[in-house]
From TrEMBL:
The lineage of its organism: Eukaryota, Viridiplantae, Streptophyta, Embryophyta, Tracheophyta. InterPro entries: MCP_dom_sf, MCP_transmembrane, Mito_Metabolite_Transporter. Solcar repeats lie at residues 32-120, 128-212. Belongs to the mitochondrial carrier (TC 2.A.29) family. It is found in: Membrane. GO terms for cellular component: membrane. This is MITOCHONDRIAL DICARBOXYLATE CARRIER-RELATED. The keyword Membrane applies. Keywords: Membrane, Repeat, Transmembrane, Transmembrane helix, Transport. It comes from Salix viminalis. It is a multi-pass membrane protein. PANTHER family: MITOCHONDRIAL DICARBOXYLATE CARRIER-RELATED. The keyword Metal-binding does not apply. Pfam families: Mito_carr.
């Protein structure tokens, strides 16, 4: 009788060990994959930022024209012509360094946190349905924005000040000394909401569509699958 209990306990113990081992094997990404994903995500966003930065400068100038005043607003073409005429082509790259820094950090965090967040939801709720994917995307986008908001504030300040001759660090010290550390998080609330909505819609849709393609096509996870999704 005791022997039966002993064998039963041994089997239960063995099954528990196997179950734990299987749970550990379910971890979908290794630490090296997370680092690689973070690096490639940040690098790709940084390249896109470097190419499109002049448009970002024009966007900020358009948003800030006639602040606190009334009057006719000028279009993007006119603003671009004014910037080139009065400030020169270099003005279109004001704030480039903090923009690149933010791109690497924000792009890496936004995309790099998604898979771990989705896995945590799977552990907590036993599922990774579309709603949890949306929540994972919203969380990663909001966290990435909250952490990188100081660099965004610095970038906008540099873009608006054509006569600025100080570097990024000197401008950062000026902001902190004159306005306080909280000034680096101005506008963080709306920025987090926007990033959460954007990241949730992008990554959840991408993830779900990718799973559909895996189920309904002979493609496996890899370059060709991602290329097919991007062409849809």
């Amino acid at each position: 009788m005791d022997g039966g209990h002993s064998h039963s306990g041994s089997r239960n113990s063995d099954s528990f060990v196997v179950k734990v081992a299987e749970e550990k094997q379910k971890w979908p990404v290794s630490s090296s994959q997370i680092v690689s994903h973070f690096g490639t995500s940040g690098l790709s966003v940084a390249v896109a930022t470097a190419i499109t930065h002049p448009l970002d400068v024009l966007k900020v100038r358009l948003q800030m024209q006639l602040v606190g005043q009334r009057g006719p607003l000028t279009g993007m073409g006119q603003v671009a012509a004014q910037v080139l005429k009065k400030e020169g082509p270099k003005a279109l790259y004001l704030g480039l360094m903090p923009a690149l820094m933010r791109s690497v950090l924000y792009g890496g965090l936004r995309l790099g946190l998604y898979e771990p967040s989705k896995y945590a939801c799977n552990l907590a709720f036993g599922s990774s349905n579309i709603l949890l994917k949306i929540a994972s995307g919203a969380f990663s986008g909001a966290v990435a924005t909250a952490l990188t908001n100081p660099v965004e504030v610095l970038k906008v300040r540099l873009q608006m000040n054509a006569n600025q001759r100080r570097g990024s660090m000197a401008e950062m010290r000026t902001i902190v000394s004159e306005e306080g550390i909280r000034a680096l998080w101005k506008g963080v609330g709306p920025a987090m909401v926007r990033a959460a909505a954007l990241t949730a819609s992008q990554l959840a849709t991408y993830d779900e569509t990718k799973q559909v393609l895996i189920r309904w096509t002979p493609l496996d996870e890899g370059f060709h699958l991602h290329l097919l999704y991007d062409t849809i």
